[in-house]
Amino acid sequence: MVDRPLTLMAVHAHPDDEASGTGGVLARYAAEGIRTVLVTCTDGGCGDGPGGVKPGDPGHDPAAVAAMRREELEASCEVLKVSHLELLDFADSGMMGWPTNDAPGSFWRTPVEDGAARLAELMRRYQPDVVVTYDENGFYGHPDHIQAHRITMAALELTGMTPKVYWTTAPHSMVRKFGEVMREFGADFDEPEQTEAGEMPEIGLPDEEISTWVDTTQFADQKFDALAAHASQGENIFFLRMGKERFNDLWGVETFVRVRDTTGAAVPENDLFAGLR
Ligand SMILES: [Zn+2]
Q1: In this predicted model, what pLDDT tens digit does every residue of 247-271 receive, in sequence order?
Q2: Which residues contact 184 (CB under 8 A, 6 or more apart)?
Q3: Helix, strand, coil distribution of the chain in percent, nearest 5
Q4: How far apart are the CA of 1 and the centre of ligand 1, in A?
Q5: What is the CA(271)–ligand 1 centre distance, in A?
């Protein structure tokens, strides 16, 4: 149908998000001969430093952290067979409320149109058939994830040529299961904080609202190894504590909500490229 390879573009906030959020689909579609483009928006400078030094603590050097995480990101891409890695290299904004939110050059402080213009350039170059990013809450409220969502939606608007667009999500059944497993492995499962009005902001969606369930069971090993490539952030990557076997059992399916489609493929669907090949 087209004279260029079918292309998947995933837009993520930090090094390691590609593995946790979309490691399965990146590996699966690469194995099917689809071109995979990963855009990582920030340098991850607010991650843990060598020896587990936390951001803001003495001895934490964001530039050194960013350099280390870049190598880890490249290793993760190698595992997932990502065809093209593109770095927008904005400064990591840190968690919501951190002073780094407003630091010069932070992704969060970057005007959406500036980030979108850079991303639109990449979209014009690669002409992705499928674009994946986060929902408007950045899945769990991290400012860089929210900003990645905003620049992606704005860039899609500018370019207007991507037939299928998805947001990563998790069905509530899986979120519950995740909570149980975390408690089993002795981690605190942070229940989402109550807002002043008293309602709980929900992570994920009711199962029946998930449009797209992609079986990535065969690629769970690769996903785990890609996560493990981000060893410096090991303390923050809970999945690694579970071990490979358990992980493979639990996370064999990646789920998405389809927010744009010009193909007419019926939902629920089990393939991001349904209707395109
Ligand atoms: Zn992230």
Answers
A1: 887 888 999 999 999 999 999 999 9
A2: none
A3: 45, 20, 40
A4: 35
A5: 25
